[in-house]
Each structure stands twice: as structure tokens, then as C-alpha cells.
Design a protein that fits this description.
The chain is built from 13 helices and 14 strands. It has helices at residues 9-23, 43-56, 105-108, 134-137, 152-161, 170-173, 176-185, 207-220, 276-283, 291-301, 320-328, 330-340, 371-378, and strands spanning 2-4, 32-38, 59-67, 75-84, 87-97, 118-122, 141-144, 167-169, 195-202, 224-228, 235-242, 245-253, 256-261, 267-270. α8 crosses α10 (291-301) and α11 packs antiparallel against α12. Residues 325-397 are annotated as: Disordered. Residues 325-352 have a biased composition (Low complexity). Residues 384-397 have a biased composition (Pro residues).
Length: 397
């Protein structure tokens, strides 16, 4: 393992190459690059989940820890290892401070495994718009976790509004077992037995229950109601009318659930609660668009044709420092207006990072006298042209 303090992106690339040479037989083909975005408070949990997922899918693991964005001094600390505490694969943990945290892609892009898909996972609450984060714009798949949001259901609705094919959420992955058991129960349902209204029983504000209801509505074309079960954790069961009777799938304990149908004996089947690493590993099994998730999200949110949206996203530059200044003081609002070139400091859509903003050097912004000019440029400022030189009067004819 190599630890680099107050380093640059170029040094991290060289350290990873040196670790690969030193690993010898441990170096292997990579199926993908997994980029994990997390804050300092939850690094340990994110590392444990990512390590479990990387053990099932050989990948280059890049953990981006954004901290102290308002720090006046950009800084990059990195830990590079192969076959170390983060599993048998290649892993780089990067702690970014100051303005560098807003340009994390300048360090991450040179570290991506060549010719391999990129998956970005936000351990904490996802961004309001994924286009605000370039780490999500260049990814082939994007995994969010609405459970980490203050209001998970509102965060799930925002994910529907911001949806692009390739997006998914771990709230959807949590109900894979429920969907499998319920689909298997329909193997004994005759085609003549039409399904009726359904009810999902769950803890209040559970995004997985919302997606479960959307999936049932999309698959069976029946009305679905979500009922709260205060004091309980997770989904507790689902009931739906089938023919002249009722079909119910209800949890019996943390590891199993029972299937009951009118006129048939109850069957108890395994339905274990899975850890975060297992959920992430399941999402890494597929690198194509999850059309079924898009249909379930569309049915629940009543936003049509999510799966038909274009895949392309353009990076929208967003500077939290300018937004905070505009929100806290009139002087800050005026400064943000001057920096953005229009009132309100609204982010400029379609802004793209200039190649080599920090290049391979993650701390390239440090000490540059033009940093404020670069920030203004990314925020949409129009550079002020220098005063025109005086024009000499024409010569007398």
C-alpha cells in the first residue's frame, strides 16, 4: 500500500502503476470501474460495502471523499493499494479538500480502467440533479440510495424527474427477493383468474414500497395502495385479489416470508434481509439499462416514458460557494450575479470541463492567480474584454 499526502493526480497515477508492477500475479483483468462518492463521516461503511461488491466483480475501486469544500487550500491525500484491506483488486481512496473537491473528475478520469464500463455510486444522499456531478455524467450506470435522504419518498420522486436510462436506486434492489417470490407464486395462477386490486404494507415513508407498488401496477395493470405499518421496519407484506380468492406474501421473520392463497396451504420460503454490499454487488451484475425499474418508477411517479428518454447528460456547473453567498447576504448575491453574468447565479446548462482543468495533477489549481477567473468562467461569466487601444487619427491627404 502507498500513502500519498498533499499530493497530485499525476503522482496517484504513477503510484497505481507502481503498485500494479509490484503486485505481479495479483494484477488481473478488470470488468469495470466502480467510483464511490461519500463524505468523511461514512467512509468506513462505504468501504465495507464496496469491498464486498468488488470481491464478487473484479473492478478498479475509486473512492472519492469530498470534505471541507469551503477550505481555502485545495488538497489531495490518497491511498493506493492492490490486494490490501480493500480486497484483492485495485483500490484508490482519495480525500479531496477545498476547490479540488468540486473538480474531482480531474483526478478520477486518468484513473479509469481502459475500455471498461464505469459505475458511480453515491453512498450518501444523491445530488438533486446528477448532471450537477461530473462523476455521474461520465458513468455508464449510476446507483443512488434514496434511503440516505432526509425525505426518501421525495428523493425518489426527484430521481424520477431527473431520470435517464442507466440510473437505478438501491431501494429497487432491496425488493428483488419480494418480486421473485411473488412472481413464482403466480406460476400456479390460471390465465383465467384475473388479478384484482393490491395492497403493499410497509413502514411509513419507505421508497422500496413505492417502487414495489409501481412494479405491481406496471405488470398487472391493477390499482395498488400502500398502507403504513407504524413501528415496523421495511416491507411487511403484499396482498392482492386473484380470481375468487386472495394471494398474500407476508414476512414471518427477518429471514423468511410466507405465501398464502385461498384454498391452498401456507408455504414458508427464504427472504433474508441483505446487507449493503450484497445489494451493490447485485447492481453490478448488469451494466445495461434496467427497463423494468424505469417502468416501475414511471408507474409510481406518473411520469410517462422514462425508459425512452435520451441517455445523454450534459454537465451543469454548480458552485455551492456562490450559491451560499447569494443566499446569505445581498453583497454575496451581487457578487454571484457578477460571477454568473445573470441574476440569481443560476447554473449554466451544458457547461463542460475544459480538458486538463486539473489534468493529471489533482492539485493544479493550488496557487494559481487565475482561480477566481476560472470559477467565474465555470459559473457562466463572460470574460471582460480589455479596453481597446486608442485609434490614431487618419493622416491628412
Amino acid at each position: 500500500m502507498t500513502t500519498l499526502w498533499d499530493t497530485t493526480g499525476s503522482a496517484v497515477v504513477k503510484a497505481l502503476a507502481a503498485e500494479r508492477r509490484a503486485a505481479g500475479a495479483l494484477a488481473f483483468g478488470l470488468a469495470l470501474t466502480l467510483v464511490v462518492v461519500v463524505d468523511e463521516q461514512h467512509v468506513s461503511q462505504a468501504e465495507s460495502a464496496a469491498t464486498a461488491a468488488a470481491a464478487a466483480h473484479p473492478c478498479r475501486l475509486l473512492i472519492v471523499v469530498r470534505r471541507q469544500i469551503d477550505s481555502p487550500h485545495p488538497r489531495l491525500d490518497a491511498e493506493v493499494s492492490i490486494g490490501g484491506r480493500l480486497g484483492p483488486g485495485e483500490a484508490v481512496v482519495m480525500r479531496m479538500s477545498g476547490r479540488l473537491a468540486l473538480h474531482a473528475e480531474s483526478v478520477v478520469l486518468p484513473l479509469l480502467a481502459p475500455d471498461a464500463p464505469v459505475v458511480t455510486w453515491w453512498y450518501d444522499a444523491p445530488p438533486e440533479k446528477i448532471a450537477y456531478d461530473p462523476l455521474g455524467v461520465f458513468a455508464d450506470r449510476r446507483v443512488t440510495g434514496t434511503y440516505a435522504a432526509t425525505d426518501p419518498v421525495a428523493a425518489l420522486r426527484q430521481r424520477a424527474e431527473d431520470f435517464v436510462p442507466g440510473d437505478t436506486d438501491l431501494a429497487w434492489t432491496r425488493i428483488s427477493g419480494w418480486r421473485t417470490l411473488l412472481a413464482a407464486a403466480f406460476d400456479q395462477v390460471q390465465a383465467s383468474e384475473a388479478a384484482g386490486p393490491a395492497t403493499v404494507v410497509s413502514e411509513p415513508g419507505n421508497p422500496s414500497a413505492c417502487l414495489f407498488a409501481g412494479w405491481l401496477q406496471a405488470r398487472l395493470q391493477v390499482p395498488v395502495t400502500v398502507t403504513d405499518a407504524p413501528g415496523r421496519k421495511g416491507i411487511q407484506g403484499v396482498r392482492l385479489a386473484v380470481g375468487d380468492g386472495e394471494l398474500e406474501l407476508a414476512r414471518t421473520d427477518s429471514r423468511s416470508a410466507g405465501i398464502t392463497r385461498t384454498g391452498f396451504p401456507t408455504r414458508v420460503l427464504p427472504l433474508p434481509e441483505r446487507g449493503l454490499g450484497d445489494l451493490l454487488a447485485e447492481e453490478l451484475r448488469r451494466l445495461d439499462d434496467d427497463v423494468v425499474y424505469a417502468e416501475a418508477l414511471s408507474a409510481w411517479s406518473h411520469i410517462p416514458d422514462l425508459s425512452r428518454r435520451p441517455r445523454h447528460r450534459e454537465h451543469i456547473w454548480r458552485d455551492p460557494a456562490l450559491e451560499h453567498a447569494a443566499a446569505t447576504s445581498p453583497a454575496g448575491a451581487a457578487g454571484a450575479t457578477r460571477a454568473s453574468g445573470r441574476p440569481g447565479a443560476a447554473p449554466r446548462s451544458g457547461a463542460t470541463e475544459r480538458p486538463g482543468t486539473a489534468g493529471n495533477d489533482g492539485a493544479a489549481d493550488r496557487g494559481k492567480p487565475t482561480e477566481h477567473a476560472e470559477v467565474a468562467e465555470h459559473a457562466g461569466a463572460t470574460p471582460t474584454a480589455p479596453p481597446a487601444a486608442p485609434t490614431a487619427p487618419p493622416a491628412a491627404s
